[in-house]
Write a structure and sequence with these properties.
By secondary structure, the protein is of the alpha+beta class. It is built from 4 helices and 7 strands, in the order H-E-H-E-E-H-E-E-E-H-E. The protein has one domain (3-173). Strands 5-4-6 form a 3-stranded mixed sheet. Strands 1-7 form a two-stranded antiparallel ribbon. It has a two-stranded antiparallel sheet with strand order 2-3. A hairpin with a 5-residue loop joins strand 4 (104-107) and strand 5 (113-116). The radius of gyration is 17 Å and the shape is globular. The model has no long low-confidence stretch (mean pLDDT 90).
């Protein structure tokens, strides 16, 4: 990828770092309610991601010292990077995977705020206690990613992708 893509990838990593900082604060806030740990993989599915995220992660995986392992026997719904109940690309994992287990707030199709939280977490928690300060604002970060992706796909030759295209994470395992 050319130098313009390098700038997009650096900006992607900056967004990801913001997300990681927010996630870290929420993990501390909700520590006693989180059951997430190695082996908990209900949320590890074959997600699709924006091209800017796909190619940034692809670049990071190419720069790894050790080759990436993947589960060649994963079914069409499972993540190919789930190996022995652990993420083989944990450091490089997509944004969607970084927020699993946390309380997520987003606007639904009717414009109403909706809360989503892992069914294994928050089992003894009053959901009325969730607010804008102790939840992950999914739309805010998805908007940042969408805008960056829009710029990225516009910079690619021959209209390879539209701004709404997504690429399955499993394609990262293809050579």
């Amino acid at each position: 990828m050319e130098s313009k893509s390098k700038d997009h990838f650096e900006r992607y990593r900056a967004i990801r770092n913001k997300i990681d900082k927010h996630v870290s604060a929420l993990e501390k806030t909700h520590r006693k309610h989180l059951a997430c740990k190695k082996g908990c993989d209900l949320c590890c599915m074959d997600y699709s991601i924006f091209p800017v995220e796909f190619y940034a992660i692809q670049q990071e995986l190419k720069n790894r010292e050790n080759p990436v392992q993947f589960n060649q026997e994963a079914d069409e719904k499972s993540c190919v990077f789930l190996v022995d109940h652990a993420c083989a690309i944990y450091a490089e994992r997509p944004v969607i995977c970084r927020t699993h287990g946390l309380p997520l707030i987003f606007a639904n199709d009717d414009g109403e705020f909706e809360l989503s939280a892992c069914e294994l977490n928050f089992t003894n928690f009053d959901f009325e206690e969730f607010n804008m300060d102790n939840t992950f604002h999914q739309d805010k970060y998805n908007s940042m990613l969408f805008m960056l992706n829009r710029e990225f796909v516009a910079s690619l030759p021959e209209n390879q992708f539209s701004e709404f295209d997504l690429i399955p994470v499993k394609k990262l395992a293809e050579k």
